[in-house]
Amino acid sequence: MKFDSGFISQVRSSTNILEVVLGYIQLRKSGQNHIGLCPFHNEKTPSFNVNESKQIFKCFGCHVGGDTIEFIRLIENMSFVESVTLLARRQAIPLPDSGKKTGKSSKSSDFTDFFRLMERAQEHFQGCFETDSSAQSYLEKRQIEEEAIRSFGLGYAPPGNTLLGILQLEGLSESTARKCGLIRKNAQGNIYDNFRGRIMFPIRNSAGRIIAFGGRGLGSVVPKYLNSPDTPLYKKSQNLFAFDLAKNEIRKRDCAILVEGYFDCIAPHQAGFKNVVAQLGTSLTMDQVQLLRRFTRQILLNYDTDSAGIKATIRSLQLFLSSGFRVNIVSLPEKSDPDTFIQGNGAEAYRQKLLNSQPGIEFALEHFLTQHRDPFGPKGKQEITDLIAPLLLAVDNRIERSEYISRVAARLQIEPGLILQQVRRVRPHRQKEIGSPAAPRLHPLPAEIVLVQALLDSELQPEALPRLNANLIEGLVSEQLLRKIRKIWELNAELSILTLRDQLEDAKDIDLLETISLQSPPGGITLESLLESIRSLQKLHLDKKKRRIQTDLKDKEKMDPCSDRIPELLKELEKIALYRIELDQR
Ligand SMILES: [Zn+2]
Description:
Blueprint: H1 5-14, H2 17-22, E1 28-30, E2 33-36, E3 48-51, E4 56-59, E5 65-66, H3 68-75, H4 80-90, H5 106-131, H6 133-141, H7 146-152, E6 155-157, H8 163-169, H9 174-179, E7 183-185, E8 191-193, E9 198-204, E10 210-217, E11 225-227, H10 243-253, E12 256-259, H11 262-270, E13 276-278, H12 286-293, E14 298-302, H13 307-322, E15 326-329, H14 338-355, E16 358-359, H15 360-371, H16 378-394, H17 398-412, H18 416-426, H19 446-455, H20 461-464, H21 470-473, H22 479-490, H23 497-503, H24 507-517, H25 527-559, H26 565-585
Parallel strand pairs: 12-13, 12-14, 14-15
Antiparallel strand pairs: 1-2, 2-3, 3-4, 4-5, 6-9, 7-8, 9-10, 10-11, 15-16
Bound molecules: zinc ion (ZN).
């Protein structure tokens, strides 16, 4: 589906970017903008700006920026069409009649089919669950209540090959089903259902649309757990189970609980802990950390208590710390996980476990101490310091880091200075800060900023536009941008930041436009400051021209001292000098 520009601008004009962004992050007023910590990169001082009157946002740290739709696209991890749809729904704007779809591109129609296929498969699995007593009694045995079955959309894939026929009845092709990982082909060329004899867990994107499935085998079905492979809709490393259900609660509580398995996630939800998400059977990835970072910087890790679980905990701890999270570890008794613990002890006992969670570094230190045969011998101390140093280094906040160093030193009974030394030694291996800005970029001149802003200001536009000539803008950082403005003006089209942004193709120019739009020159923009800026750009142009002619002149004098061009060039220099004086006197 593709929306026409009229609908897009209707959605855009009926939403307020400030309200939208405030739904995700905290902002405070600063001059004409609202500023806050960027949700798209790791930072300690705010460089994320929202300008309400211009309806744009811009981060001066990682250079993302755009309008409300772009913000939603980035923060919700959605396509453009999905973002427009989400905003339209929130504003109760009816979507254009799907019968009048225009300009259907093959890629988006593919995706439409993919989503339709997942939904149809989900209906099938839910339908099968309704009629299968073994599936029902399995969930009953695991104490999953009806409400959770409904909200998580649990289903059942029966043994045998039932899915393909159903999908084909809907006009969905075998190849679409294969691309989505629901159907497979074996070496003999036979087609079969990927999920057979399994309880089905739909995996949704943050907007709540099904993008994959996980399946728990019933009886002797192997493997016990099977997940969709990566598909065009789904990347295992970029998603978290139940993120769509948990994200609002994560934001509200400013904390997420991360668990390992499907049941470990459903059991706490059922017991009233709605800010729980689960990893999808892999080691934690930076993408998953980033997904959570949009909503919180505090995490409770509640993995299994076996040695694999502890190893994974320490690995995830480091990843979260290095992304600026506060991390606490929830310790459940040995051989229990969130699911079995809540079943056996109830919600209140689980709440106590969450309250008694331990700062990640302390947990890791205690773990290293118990694992070591002689932790307080000279060698033991050194080895444990080596193990804990990368974690200490990962702590983003310096004050917190030094606090942890003191605590570790006290526990190991050694000088804090020695630990600090060790931390410094591992520093060169430190991960690059995520989202760190790329190569230095060119900065527009103050006069350019004034000119661009005046051109986009409805009152100053009539003064600024006629003065925009090719000489003036040649060689400026914003040359392409200014050319585009000129072109829009020549075509008599509406000229504003958002209409201009839509027409820019080069990401550099879009970045520049956003950067310039959010800067407020001292004293604001007046007709005087506009004229002053134009004069200074004219001078700049003359100076450049002068240098060019001087070089030319030198060359000529060397090659052919009698050339006719020499007096001509001298005359041009004279003209430039006169014009320059005139400009100075204005
Ligand atoms: Zn940023």
